[in-house]
Amino acid sequence: MKELNNIKERVIVAGVSHLQPDFEYTMEELASLVEANNMEVADVIKQNVNSVSAKTYFGSGKVTEIKEIANADDVTTIVLNDELTPSQIRNLEKETKLSFMDRTELILQVFSNRAHTKQAKLQVEIAKLQYQLPRIHPSGNPLDQQSASGGLANRGAGETKLELDRRVIRKRITYLKDQLKTVDQTIDVQSRRRTNTAMPLVSLVGYTNAGKSTTMNGILNFNKEDSDDRKVFEKDMLFATLDTSVRKIDLEDNTSFLLSDTVGFVSKLPHNLIESFKTTLKEAKDADLLIQVIDVSDEHWRNMLEVTEKTLKEVGVKDKPMIYAFNKADLKPDQEFPSIEGDNIYYSAIDKKSIETLVNLIKLKLYSDFKTVNLMIPYDKQKIAEQVLRTSQVIKKEFLNEGSLITANLSPDELAEYGEFVSE
Question: How far is residue 330 from each of residues 118, 292, 327, 344, measured CA to CA in Å?
């Protein structure tokens, strides 16, 4: 949603509780999503009932109240806290003469505005078209707006136009999926090249705006001031970026790992969007270690943790070693940081000591079963030496009369593979 003359569109956010235990939280989050979409919240309307109306989502009295408040506030758009059926949206618009946008459409708009890479743009457009497909109806056809005297001929024309529109959208979805498959294959080749090395992959996951990108930039800066072109975009806003970034982290003790920053999550994330972003989240699925970044300063952090873990399961990420990284501990007066409690770390992504503590915890998790050994590899087996130098954590190398002497930090699998060359 673009601003016109720097004036944001004013909207009303509204929702029905219908026994949602986290209803108040999701309503607050809806307001944040509205702001992320360059709109302004003029008013908030809630209805506390056990179930939604199959016809209009709200009860009839609340529909009348929404219409009156919208007219008084000079607002024409109502943003709703759930995904509505096409008929619910149409009935609401017919009864109030207002425009209604459900939570799914809002999230899709935010994602559309944030998508920059070809992959992200394709993923979002597919999700948008899949959302729109069941919502096309004949009223979009001018012939359908004519009087009843037009008879069945006009009705038939409308239905023909409806089927034509649906065919066009289905064809477009098929085309975009083919395009996305090509892009995904290219990215998958790059991913396989990374996984063909012994270098561990660490993936940052978590709720949107929890501080994943800030954490990644902090780790990039840990040993030295990294070049700006290696840093990832960070901003205090929901879904600041949708693009997965992967960077190699080289530490002073010659250990290295790959670090990826993935798209953030939000409650009630549209299913079509989750499906579209499965490839984007492949870095998390392939990771040796997950770091779930949690904004501990937010009173709803437990809800955020639950949403993240539920979404990870939906995209097939499970049974992965995980560090629970409670960020923004500096905003909690009673919280000591940096501190470690088992798999939990309390830290601040803008504090260098915190980042050092996090890096040490990552190393402990990644390399606890690694062993530093000397490998003496004869010159007639230099292909093996080249493989070790290319794929392993090499600390030192020397070229002696009898062969290449390589000191490396090896995983159990590498020890089994190169065991015959281990020397004292």
Answer: 37, 18, 8, 16
Nearest to 385 by CA among 410, 418, 413, 409: 418
Q: How far is CA 388 from CA 63, 197, 200, 391, 419, in A?
A: 69, 9, 15, 5, 12
Dist CA 250 CA 258 (whole Å): 9
Q: What is the pLDDT of residue 240?
A: 52
Q: Strands 322-327 and 344-346, how do they pair?
A: parallel
- Tokens matching residue 50: 């056990």
**CA pair distance 358, 375, nearest whole angstrom:** 31
Check residue 14 and give its pLDDT: 98
Is 202 strand, coil or helix?
Answer: strand
> Residue 343 corresponds to which tokens in the numbers above?
């798999």
CA angle 204, 116, 166 (to 5 degrees): 110
Q: What is the pLDDT of residues 286-321, one digit of tens each?
A: 889 999 999 999 999 998 999 899 888 888 888 899
DSSP H helix total and E strand total for the chain:
13, 15
Neighbours of 195 (CB within 10 A): 12
CA distance 262 to 207: 10
Which residues are 100's β-sheet partners? 78
Q: 332 near 297, Cβ under 8 Å? A: yes
Query: Residue 12 pairs with which residues in a beta bridge?
Result: 43, 78
Question: According to the model, what pLDDT value does residue 368 have?
Answer: 85
- Say which residue the tokens 């109502």 belong to: 78
The pair of three-digit structure tokens given for residue 142, joined into one six-digit string: 């001018």
3-state secondary structure of 76: coil
> Which residue pairs from 271-277 have beta carbons closer than 8 angstroms and sit at least 24 positions apart in sequence?
272/126, 272/127, 272/130, 272/131, 273/107, 273/108, 273/111, 273/123, 273/124, 273/127, 274/311, 274/314, 274/315, 275/127, 276/123, 276/124, 276/126, 276/127, 276/180, 277/123, 277/242, 277/315
For β-strands 371-377 and 422-423, DSSP reports them as: antiparallel
Do the beta carbons of residue 324 and residue 311 sit within 8 Å?
no
Rounded to whole angstroms, the Cα distance separating 252 from 11 reads 52
Burial classification of residue 252, based on how many CB atoms lie within 10 Å of its CB (0-12 exposed, 13-18 middle, 19 or more buried): exposed
Q: Which of 176, 172, 30, 187 is nearest to 110 (CA)?
A: 30
Q: In sequence order, which residues have a C-beta less than 8 Å from that of residue 224 and are 6 or more positions away?
A: none
Q: Cα separation of 74 and 80, whole Å?
A: 18
